Amino acid sequence: MTAPDGSGNAFGHEGERTSDESKERTNEELPVDGPDQRSEETQSRALTINLKTQQFSYLVDGEAVRSGPISSGAQGYPTPTGTFSVLGKEKDKVSSRYTNTLGMQAWMPYSIRFHGHYFLHEGWLPGYPDSHGCVRLGEKDARFLFERMKIGDRVEVVN
What we know:
By secondary structure, the protein is mainly β.
């Protein structure tokens, strides 16, 4: 199956995990101990993107809840570092700046804008920095973060 960006392998994903399969974690989903006593509105949510390790960590109230692989900006297209916040979200975003290998505007599903024209979004994960500066995530991770992160949540990008 060819992905909308022409890469050929970004969006040909497995089906959803069943309840038995959810116990087997493809990405590192860390358990949260005990029932959550705070409402979603009062929880502190934060995302750390580590460019050196090409990994993300999602924290709720300072506790790591999920982590997984990313692909950040390739040489010449650096992903900005610093502390940012979620500025906007768009489930079916299409890039206004970049095209795919077929010359079509690049599809950026589950987009979370964190700085200027920089987004976290679903995309191909080759195992190294390969984007135009955005942070690519696997489909399940992109959807997980999109569903949980709120406008104003902290996004920290470190080397």
